[in-house]
Amino acid sequence: MAGEFDASAYGRSIADIYDTTTDALPTDSAVDRLHDLADGGPVLEFGIGTGRLALPLAARGLAVAGIDGSAEMVLVLRTKAGGDRVPVTLGDFATTRVEGEFALVVLAVNTIFALPSQEAQVSCFRNAAAHLRPGGRFVVEAWVPDLGAFRNGSALRLLSLGEDAVVAEAARLSAADQMMYTTRIRMTDAGLRLLPANHRYAWPAELDLMARLAGMEREHRWSDWTGAAFTDDSRAHVSVYRI
Ligand SMILES: C[S@@+](CC[C@H](N)C(=O)[O-])C[C@H]1O[C@@H](n2cnc3c(N)ncnc32)[C@H](O)[C@@H]1O
């Protein structure tokens, strides 16, 4: 299960259907918030994927660039209107450098946890900081670990129920390593599709400390992109760090 880390693996397994899995994501509020936080400046998205956030930001007039580990995800981005005009560098966003100084670096949808160790996540924060101009911001969207969802170290939950597709998730917890090994099971008339994704999870306070190690301070923490307060009950957070 441990194996070598491969920044291209997630995208390779899901690229052809990724865009059918994002309906429930709060894309409009994320784009509004990111547009405000960029304040007219250039944006770099770590894990740009198929351009769910990058393309609407570019359509609003911002200069947007990206890094992604998956050529397959970027190929989908290239098929979309405006997708050929977004510069994308293939590589691991924990270490890959691109030209330029950015007002905003974005890492959405829990993708910080795709990095397999604390060391790799700290490296990612440092890499974000290295791309920011003075006063620039690094925005991280992630869930708050919910260990209560596991019984005897495993969990099975229904993620979505539709007439065309049912999606469930099987997960195993390794609390000592802060790892969750998950496989989504997508059931359609065409058959079963298994979508593995492993997460080295971290609580918000650990991410704050990573930001400090990278020379940034937390400016905001909300429970979602609308800016709702982060509370005891929040299951996710949008955290904004400033250099
Ligand atoms: C959940 S998708 C999110 C895509 C897009 N940001 C969005 O909001 O729809 C995660 C993306 O991050 C990429 N990715 C995951 N780990 C990576 C890594 N270590 N380095 C570069 N890209 C990575 C995947 O290939 C995928 O495109």
UniProtKB/TrEMBL annotation:
Classification via InterPro entries: Methyltransf_25, SAM-dependent_MTases_sf
Q: Name one GO biological process term.
A: methylation
Q: Name one Pfam family in it.
A: Methyltransf_25
The Methyltransferase domain covers which part of the protein?
A: 43-136
The reply to whether Protease figures as a keyword in the UniProt entry is no
Q: Which UniProt keywords apply?
A: Methyltransferase, Transferase
Q: Name one GO molecular function term.
A: methyltransferase activity
Listed Gene3D superfamilies:
2.20.25.570, Vaccinia Virus protein VP39 (3.40.50.150)
Asked whether the UniProt record includes Ribosomal protein among its keywords, one would answer no
Q: What is this protein called in UniProt?
A: Class I SAM-dependent methyltransferase
In its UniProt entry, the species of origin is given as Streptosporangium fragile
